Amino acid sequence: MEEDIGLKKRKGDPHGEKGPQAGQEAGETVKRKRGRPPAEKLPPNPPELTRKLSTLVDMVTNYKDGLGRQISKGFVQLPSKKEVPEYYELIRKPVDFRRIRERVRNHKYRNVGDLEKDIFLLCHNAQTYNLEGSQIYEDSIVIKSVFESARQRIVTDEEQKEAVGATRSDNGGGAEDQFVPSTVKALPEQLKRGTKEGRSRSTVGKRLHSDLDSDVDLEDNTQKDQG
Fold first, then answer.
1. Helix extents (H) in 36-173
2. What is the distance between the alpha carbons of residues 171 and 177, in angstroms, rounded to a whole number?
């Protein structure tokens, strides 16, 4: 009887012992389908690059027009898909300043060019969805212009710093090069040269003038002696 019961149990389970394993494999398959591949962790950017990117974003978002209006407020965070579903049907790559700041913090931008692409994409999306001449359309044009000016300003400042650093290294970094008062502006090279040449000429003139005076004095003294 016991053998018959065992046979019935085996017949009732056509997969036998493979049942639990098959269930586990199915569960693993489901997990693989649901799970997303882990995000690639990028090495952190140099602190100087992170500061530069953050400064650029701040300069753009803090900009105010002639009326004192902060034009970036309409670009800080996009509405949700539930609020404006047609926007996400038209715009394939939505981006706002909230996402841009997050990407700066997570080191997604590896250079200023990467940040520029997202800023320009933000402006392009606004001009694609909104009517030409609308307030947000016009604001997007200003934002692009402000970013270009801010980037040029930072690049110019860096070039000036590099030039100053190279000059100091060539001059040996003397004590005079270590302190420049903020109230004194550096003279252009042409003016500097002109000043040096003027000084050298005036010095030579003084020397010649003093030599002539000494010769005249000697002649006067000789005439006095002869008299």
1. 47-61, 85-90, 97-105, 112-129, 135-170
2. 8
Burial of 115 (0-12, 13-18, 19+ CB in 10 A): buried
* 97 close to 122: Cβ distance less than 8 angstroms: yes
| Residue type (1 letter), 79 | P
Tokens of 107: 């080191």
Q: What's the pTM value of the predicted model, to 2 decimals? A: 0.57
Give tens-digit pLDDT for 17-39: 555 555 555 555 555 556 666 66
Q: Is the pLDDT of residue 116 over 60?
A: yes
Q: What was the pLDDT predicted at 53? A: 97
Q: Tell me how far apart the alpha carbons of residues 204 and 215 are, in angstroms, rounded to a whole number.
A: 17
Non-local CB neighbours of 8 within 8 Å, separated by 6+ positions: none
85: number of Cβ within 10 Å: 10
Specify the long-range contacts of residues 2-5, CB closer than 8 Å, at least 24 apart.
Answer: none
